[in-house]
Amino acid sequence: MAALPAQGPQPPSILISRHLAELEGLATGDDVQLATDERGGNARMFRVAGIYEPTPDPMRLGVAPRAVRMHLTDLLALTRDPATPAGTEHVEGINVALLDPDGARAFANDVNARIPGVFARRTTGAAGSASTFVVLERFHLAIAAVTIVAATVFLLALTIMLVDERRATVGVLRLIGLPARRILVQVLIEGLLIAGAGALFGLLLALASEGLINAFFQWRYDTALIFVRVTPTVAATCLAIAVPLGAVATVAASWALLRRSGLRLARR
Amino acid sequence: MSPPLDAARPSMNSGRPEPVVGRGALSASRRALALAWRSLVRQPARAALGILGVAAVGALLFDMLLLSHGLVTSMRDLLDRMGSDIRVTSTEQVQDRGPDIADAAAAAASIATLPSVRSVLTIRTEDADLLRGGGPPTRASFLGIGGGPGRPWTVVRGADVAGEHELVINEYAAQVLGAEPGASVTVRAYCSQGAGAPPPLVFRVAGIAEFPFDVPDRSAAGATATSVAEVCGAPDASAADFLMVTSNGDPAGAAADIARLHPELRAFTNEQAIGQLQQRGFTYFQQISSVLTIITVSFALLLITVLLTVSVNQRLGEVAALRALGFSQGRVVLDVLCESALIVGIGGALSLPLGALLAVWLDRILKGMPGIPASLHFFVFEPQALWIHAALLAATAFMAAIYPMRIVARLPIAATLRDEVIG
What we know:
The structure holds 2 protein chains of 2 kinds. Chain A is an alpha+beta fold. Chain A folds into 3 domains: 2-92, Beta Barrel (Barwin-like endoglucanases), CATH 2.40.40; 95-126, no CATH class; 132-266, no CATH class. Chain A has 8 helices and 5 strands. By secondary structure, chain B is α+β, with helices and mostly antiparallel strands. Chain B has 2 domains: 30-75 and 282-422, no CATH class; 102-264, no CATH class. In chain B, 52% of the residues lie in helices and 17% in strands. Chain B has helices at 21-42, 44-81, 104-112, 171-177, 225-231, 251-261, 270-279, 283-314, 316-325, 329-366, 383-409, 413-422, and strands spanning 86-89, 117-131, 138-147, 154-158, 166-169, 184-190, 201-210, 219-224, 242-247, 266-269. The interface between A and B is large, with 45 and 42 residues.
């Protein structure tokens, strides 16, 4: 690619990616020569009509997309072998918009039956359930599950220690006549409050760090990709897991203690 | 016989200190470990939960260390297993499917004459439908190999491709088609170059083979470059996607020779190809591994600190009593450190088998991504990962113990005992 001052008849227009514009110092209105080989063979003049931000691709992190978009006719004219008659060139794919999108499956089957050498398929679900992002989501969920297990174990250990610390208090409460169920309800409410406060704090921490994480990785990879997004669904899921888990851990840790008699608990 | 309370004190016989400082320190550490162990087993539920928590976190940490270089190691292994050590392409990017090498056969022949080169293969990959009888077709990657005698696949049943209109297929294709060596298969190709709709050709299955980049549930077939060109409707068999070159032991020198001979082509050694892949495609997993390693270690640090601190706070009276009985400040501090080391040490040891099992599960999940070869792994064990894991857990054990150690070091003995008695 070579940039040239704009002059003469107007060449065909192209769009270039922001990364390419920055790398080559190009701006809208510049004329550039594009060639199909590095020696500049069969070069043709184009005018930069605009600079676009490429759709971020998580699988190509760290790669500055040096991309050009042009009309298909211009691309074919640029890349056509001299021996290939115009109109017989090869393209990799044809996107078809149907008047009735529900007929996509039947249309694809029809094309496959009528035109040998062409493979038609619906765009919806073309990647199948095993697409990259579905798999990555599963992976993240698996990591989250392991983290939850580890956190639950630690939480149980902590609550056991905290409940143990209050053994005498619980013993006195039992001795003055409070039934075990009443104390258990109190412990449950306390657990819910602590778990709720903890979960809210965690969410606030996630919201606060969301911008920082995105800013860092967007800078690191020079991409517009959003890496972390705390959606209402994610927040609700976190609360739905954390609060009951915290409360159950508190009750489970207290259960063994409450089964003992008040005298044993209050004994020093 | 019990060891002396102070192993470094002067000998009663000579009046000079005995050279037993190292042994004494070891003995003191052993006694501290024994006391820490007794502290742990006195509260079995608490200790077990702490250890299990460390095991779970340690397993995740271990897996993140395996993930950090797993893909690179696995890809290097795959490339090495292909038998070549240089890949020649038409573009700067080894990962992308760039333009074909137009006159690959001639390029391969000239490269093969270099003294630093042992053999050259031309590789062309096209998509094709394989059909047998009236059954449904299976879409396959169809490899056309030209040049030297080697093949990038390993025949597991039957024979290798010996001539035209013969092919080898992978196990999946054999199952889908119900084809064994000797069977006939119709091939309908979809080629980037050649006729728009080439007529299908009948091939004989010479054997069943394993392809290095076999993708699960995806058919693959291999034949000669001439056969592939023919099934593409283009009699010219000289085009190839890339060349696989085997050097005479100096890949870098051979790559330089190739670059001098063919400046229009790009020659990458396996290490250079891995380097490029590392910079591009594998970054995501390295980043997620780094982030999760930091989070996991921080999580473990925080929670062990809390566990130890609460535990120490509950035992302040006991610690003060030990101090009053003559235990030195250093000794009670060492007890806390040993307790931390025991929790993290036992949990860390448990985390290794747990992490290995978890890695198998996570690897299976990630290999569900489309286009991932069956023999490529995301989690690959390297001894280095084990050392880093141990070092990180040791650092965590020490750092987690700092605050509780400070509490017991500064504990006012008399005031604490009085509070315990009054309380």
